[in-house]
Amino acid sequence: MNQPLPFSQASENNKQVILDVLKCYLKSGDKVLEIASGTGQHAVFIAENMPELHWQSSDISSNVESLNLRISAAQLENLPAAIPLDVNQEHWPCDVPNSIFSANSLHIMSADSVENFFAGVCNHLKEGHLLVYGPFKYGGNFTSESNAGFDLWLKDRNPESGIRDFEWVDGLTKRCGFQLTEDHVMPANNQLLVWNRESSR
Ligand SMILES: C[S@@+](CC[C@H](N)C(=O)[O-])C[C@H]1O[C@@H](n2cnc3c(N)ncnc32)[C@H](O)[C@@H]1O
C-alpha cells in the first residue's frame, strides 16, 4: 500500500512565490543545497520547474525517511535522495554547493543552532547565494500582529524557538564576508533574504 506523502499547507501556498524569487538568483548547472527540507514540497516543485539545477535536499535524520517518500515519488533526475544533515554537525556531509536555500527553519531551531547554521554556511558555501525564507523581526519589532502571535505560539511549543532578529542573522553572515543582496517582502508576513559571497581568491 502507498504511504501518504508528508504535506504542509504553508509550503503549498508559498512554493510558487519562492520559486519566482529563486529564478532571479539561481542559474543553470547550479548545485543547490536545501537545509531543513521538511515535507520536500519545495524541493520537488523547484526541481520540477528548474530542471537545469541540481537540488540536494536534507533534514535531521529523524525526518529523512518521510522526506524521501516525496522525493522518491517525484522521480526527478535532478533531485537525488535527501541526506541527513543537522546544522549542528561540524562537517556537513554534502558536495560543495553553489547556493544554499532554507525555508521556515531559523524560527524553529534554537538560537545556538541558528549560529551553527550560519557557521556551516560559512564553511561550506565559499562562493554563491544564501537564500533564506521565513518571518523576521526588524529593530526588535514584528512585521505584523500575526507574527507576534506566531512567536508566542512557537515559544509555548518550544521555548528555544522564536522569530529571529534580521540584524542578528545579517551580522552572522557578515562574519565570513556575505553581503545582503536583497530583502524580498513576501506574502503572509514573510521575507526572502538573499546574501551573496564572492570568492576571496
Ligand atoms: C517548519 S519546518 C520547515 C520545513 C520546510 N522547509 C518548509 O518550509 O515547509 C522546520 C524544519 O527544520 C528542521 N530542523 C529543525 N532543527 C534542525 C537542525 N538542527 N538541522 C537541520 N534541520 C532542522 C525540521 O526537521 C523541519 O523539517
Tell me about this structure:
With 201 residues, the protein is an alpha/beta fold. The protein has a single domain (9-197), classed as Vaccinia Virus protein VP39 (Rossmann fold, 3-Layer(aba) Sandwich). It is 38% helix and 23% strand. It is built from 6 helices and 11 strands. The chain has a 6-stranded mixed sheet with strand order 2-1-5-6-11-10, with helices on both faces. The longest helix has 17 residues, at 9-25. The model has no long low-confidence stretch (mean pLDDT 96). Residues 8, 11, 35-39, 59-60, 63, 86-88, 103-105, 108-109, 113 line the site of S-adenosylmethionine.
Number of domains: 1
**Quick one: CATH class?**
Alpha Beta
Which value, in Å, is the CA radius of gyration? 16 Å
What is the number of E strands?
11
Order of helices and strands: HEHEEHEEHEEEHEHEE
Q: What is the overall silhouette?
A: globular
Please identify, by name, the CATH architecture: 3-Layer(aba) Sandwich
Q: What is the distance, rounded to the nearest whole angstrom, between the alpha carbons of the first and last residues?
A: 53 Å
The low-confidence parts are none
Helical percentage: 25-40%
The percent range for strand residues is 15-25%
Give the structural class: alpha/beta
CATH superfamily: Vaccinia Virus protein VP39
Kindly report the average pLDDT value. 96
> Biggest sheet: strands side by side, in what order?
2-1-5-6-11-10
Number of helices: 6
